[in-house]
């Protein structure tokens, strides 16, 4: 799939940069990114055989759009995912289908303004009850209700999200605050556009100048 190919390309580039990087801090940031990408690739849904995918497409008819935007909230018993879709309340109820498993769900909205909409959540953070989960159709919105197996607070929606948060925290969690800042600046520099790079360079030069004049004792 397109997303899988893009992730593979990103991973190849990170590996390439790792072979060239000599600074430990930079290598740490790249290693974090490498682990994150490997996790995402591992958690991509398996590709369907071409015939099955084609058959599904032709049975749906029209153009299929993948939904990426959503909001979420939780109560003691439910994880609630809000998906905005204009006019969804006008569809027959059977056109809005959700399949639940203990750690995932798939949403399919058929023939809304000539398009089909899909959304897949794999690797939910904790198990859900398939029987207790459901969906509600509201004005311009589908609400997916995932019934928690245990009544506890979820810190995020998926396992991947949790792991990438933990890795990022570990990369910047250091007893030396200036080192944590350096790691963060390097990541911002690496991911930033030209404007961001100029801003960071300017700040760097200015802090060096002040330091050499003895205005501030900074060790960065």
Give an overview of the whole structure:
With 220 residues, this protein is of the alpha+beta class. The chain has three domains: 2-43, DNA Excision Repair, Uvrb, Chain A (Irregular); 64-148, Immunoglobulin-like (Sandwich); 158-197, no CATH class. Helix content is 45%, strand content 25%. It has six helices and eight strands. It has helices spanning 2-20, 24-42, 50-60, 159-172, 177-191, 194-213; strands at residues 63-66, 71-74, 78-84, 96-101, 104-112, 115-121, 128-138, 141-148. Strands 1-6-5-4 form a four-stranded mixed β-sheet, with no helix packed on it. The longest helix has 20 residues, at 194-213. The protein is elongated. 12% of the residues are buried. The mean pLDDT is 82. Its main location: cytoplasm. InterPro entries: CacyBP_N (IPR037201), Calcyclin-binding_UBL-bridge (IPR052289), CS_CacyBP (IPR037893), CS_dom (IPR007052), HSP20-like_chaperone (IPR008978), SGS_dom (IPR007699), Siah-Interact_N (IPR015120). Residues 65-158 form the CS domain.
């Amino acid at each position: 799939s397109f997303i899988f190919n893009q992730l593979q390309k990103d991973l190849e580039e990170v590996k390439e940069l790792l072979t060239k990087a000599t600074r430990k801090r930079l290598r740490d940031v790249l290693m974090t990114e490498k682990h994150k990408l490997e996790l995402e690739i591992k958690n991509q849904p398996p590709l369907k055989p071409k015939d099955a995918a084609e058959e599904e497409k032709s049975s749906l008819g029209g153009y299929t759009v993948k939904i990426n935007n959503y909001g979420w909230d939780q109560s003691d018993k439910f994880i609630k995912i809000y998906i905005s879709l204009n006019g969804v309340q006008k569809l027959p109820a059977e056109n809005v289908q959700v399949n639940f498993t203990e750690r995932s769900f798939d949403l399919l909205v058929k023939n809304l303004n000539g398009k089909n909409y899909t959304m897949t959540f794999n690797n939910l953070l904790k198990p859900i009850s398939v029987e207790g989960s459901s969906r509600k159709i509201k004005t311009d919105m589908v609400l997916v209700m995932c019934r928690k197996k245990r009544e506890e607070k979820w810190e995020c929606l998926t396992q991947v999200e949790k792991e990438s948060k933990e890795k990022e925290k570990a990369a910047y969690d250091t007893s030396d605050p200036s080192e944590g800042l350096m790691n963060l600046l390097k990541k911002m520099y690496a991911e930033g556009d030209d404007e961001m790079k100029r801003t960071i360079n300017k700040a760097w030069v200015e802090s060096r100048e002040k330091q050499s004049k003895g205005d501030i004792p900074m060790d960065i």
